[in-house]
Structures are given as C-alpha cells and as structure tokens.
Specification:
single chain; mainly alpha
C-alpha cells in the first residue's frame, strides 16, 4: 500500500494495473451465430408482423383523403394530399422496415 500524493487515509491506495483493468473472459457470453445481432428470430417475426399491421392501417387511413382526388371534391387538392401522402410514406416505411427485418 502506498500513499498517493502524501494525502494518506482511506481510498488513496495505488492499485496495480492488473487489478484496475480486468480482461473480459471469452466464456462470459454464449456463442452467437455469425452475423447475429442478438435478437431472437421469433421477435423479428413479431416486429415484422406489427409493422405490416401498421402499414396496412396507414394505407386504409390514406385511402380516405386520396380517394377524393378522383371524385367529388369539397376542398382544395392540397388538403387531400396533405393528409394522404404522409400516411403513404408511413405505410411504405413500415413495409420496407418489415421486409428488411425478415430478410436479415
């Protein structure tokens, strides 16, 4: 035990480097297949299914404003696009993300 800077007292011991930096054991974690990110495939399937449901819901909600572009209009076209196009973007993003989860 040595005195760090002459202060003395509790907590001033200088520890050897081997005690400060302890190597992580290789057997601390179970082996994972090459390319695995740590998520079980069943959880990916559940997440993909939920994303497909979100995409379908967004498509159904987008159809309401967008169908008015082809028939009776009581508001400017920009109003329908303002509500319909963001929902289409959400649907496309959900479907693309679900696909990427499944093929990973």
């Amino acid at each position: 035990m040595s005195d760090a800077g002459g202060l003395g007292g509790v907590g001033t011991e200088v520890l050897p480097a081997a005690e400060i930096i302890r190597p992580i054991r290789d057997d601390a974690r179970p082996e994972q297949p090459l390319g695995a990110v740590g998520v079980c495939p069943c959880m990916r399937a559940v997440a993909a299914a939920l994303l497909v449901l979100v995409g379908c819901a967004a498509l159904v909600l987008a159809w309401g404003p967008l169908q008015n572009l082809f028939g009776y209009r009581d508001s400017p076209i920009a109003t329908y696009l303002l509500f319909g196009l963001p929902l289409l973007v959400v649907a496309a993003a959900a479907f693309v993300t679900a696909w990427r989860l499944l093929v990973r």
